[in-house]
Amino acid sequence: MRFRVTVEVNGLEGISDPEGQTIERTLPLLGFSAVSHVRTGKLFRFDLEAVDAAEAERLSGELCERLLANPVIEQAEVRVAAAGS
Question: What average pLDDT does the segment 69-81 reach?
Fold first, then answer.
C-alpha cells in the first residue's frame, strides 16, 4: 500500500536559530513589524510503500532518526496518509 508522508523538522526550544533571527530582524524593514518569534525548519514530502499505516509511521520515524533530523537539536513531526486521500 502506498502512503503519502509529510515530515516537518524544527529546532528544539532553546536551540539557536540564526536564520530565523535574521529573518525576524529584517521583517520590520519590510513593513512586517507585527511578526515575532520566527523559527525556521524543513519540510519533506515523499511517498512510501508499506503494509499498513503503522509500518509507514515506523519506517518514516526511522528515516527521520537516521537522516532527516538531528535528534540532538531537532524534532520531527511525521504525518502519514493513504496516497490519494
Answer: 96
